[in-house]
């Protein structure tokens, strides 16, 4: 028998833990900002996923085995974990949004739609920081 119904509950829980960890790290971390082990375990708990340090390490190895650059950040105390590199970094995504904003052949609704989609590719913290920078630029008449 194949499919999700044939997997043991322990295996299914391991997969869900790794997938939730991947999403959490993808959305909330970058090369400068990570999550501590305590934060990761607490956040997984919010989703009803039990975890301990060893199971997080195992999930991190699984993420690396499929090509995500998930690792502990150097020089952090307590240790923080993050997805460090991505195909497009926050600056690349900001440039793409700026190009879409200036694109004359797109109507405003399509520009907004594309900006939202491009923005969704950035970690939430990086997107918030970029929005702050954009707001400062708009408020500063010298820019």
Automatic annotation (TrEMBL):
Residues 134-143 have a biased composition (Basic and acidic residues). InterPro entries: WH_DNA-bd_sf. Residues 122-132 have a biased composition (Low complexity). Residues 122-143 are annotated as: Disordered. This is Uncharacterized protein.
């Amino acid at each position: 028998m194949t499919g999700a119904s044939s997997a043991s509950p322990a295996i299914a829980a391991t997969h869900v833990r790794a997938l939730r960890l991947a999403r959490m790290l993808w959305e909330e971390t970058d090369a400068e900002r990570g999550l501590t082990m305590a934060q990761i375990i607490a956040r997984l708990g919010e989703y009803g996923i039990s975890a301990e340090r060893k199971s997080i390490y195992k999930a991190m190895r699984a993420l690396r085995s499929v090509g995500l650059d998930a690792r502990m950040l150097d020089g952090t105390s307590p240790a923080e974990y993050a997805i460090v590199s991505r195909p497009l970094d926050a600056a690349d995504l900001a440039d793409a949004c700026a190009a879409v904003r200036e694109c004359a052949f797109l109507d405003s609704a399509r520009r907004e739609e594309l900006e939202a989609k491009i923005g969704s590719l950035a970690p939430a913290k990086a997107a918030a920081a970029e929005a702050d920078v954009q707001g400062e630029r708009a408020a500063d008449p010298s820019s």
